[in-house]
Amino acid sequence: MADLPVPLKDTRLLDVKLGQLPSWIAMRDFTPSGLTGAVRRGYDRYLNKYINVKKGSIGGVAMVLFGYVVVSYIWNYEHLKHDRWRKYH
């Protein structure tokens, strides 16, 4: 049985050609329930890949902590930038 072409709607982002990208994005579900489902699927994939494993390590938790540190820095950058140039004497 020959491989049937996968419909563009079911194609993963990494398998989409650059010319197909606008139509692929237009087929996505951007409703609140669609976005919630996408976040839930991403969370489930992360949980099953890094947390719910037989031989777990600190790697999965370290990624979450590193992400938190980066996002915190980005959110506080304006405040930190002004503190960097402040004179204390």
TrEMBL record:
Its main location: mitochondrion. One of its GO terms (molecular function) is proton-transporting ATP synthase activity, rotational mechanism. It holds the Pfam family WRW. It comes from the Eukaryota. Keywords: Acetylation, ATP synthesis, CF(0), Hydrogen ion transport, Ion transport, Membrane, Mitochondrion, Mitochondrion inner membrane, Phosphoprotein, Transmembrane, Transmembrane helix, Transport. GO terms for cellular component: mitochondrial inner membrane; proton-transporting ATP synthase complex. It is found in: Mitochondrion inner membrane. One of its GO terms (biological process) is proton motive force-driven mitochondrial ATP synthesis. It is a single-pass membrane protein. The chain crosses the membrane at residues 57-77. Belongs to the ATPase F chain family. Subunit f, of the mitochondrial membrane ATP synthase complex (F(1)F(0) ATP synthase or Complex V) that produces ATP from ADP in the presence of a proton gradient across the membrane which is generated by electron transport complexes of the respiratory chain. ATP synthase complex consist of a soluble F(1) head domain - the catalytic core - and a membrane F(1) domain - the membrane proton channel. These two domains are linked by a central stalk rotating inside the F(1) region and a stationary peripheral stalk. Component of the ATP synthase complex composed at least of ATP5F1A/subunit alpha, ATP5F1B/subunit beta, ATP5MC1/subunit c (homooctomer), MT-ATP6/subunit a, MT-ATP8/subunit 8, ATP5ME/subunit e, ATP5MF/subunit f, ATP5MG/subunit g, ATP5MK/subunit k, ATP5MJ/subunit j, ATP5F1C/subunit gamma, ATP5F1D/subunit delta, ATP5F1E/subunit epsilon, ATP5PF/subunit F6, ATP5PB/subunit b, ATP5PD/subunit d, ATP5PO/subunit OSCP. This is ATP synthase F(0) complex subunit f, mitochondrial. It comes from Mauremys mutica.
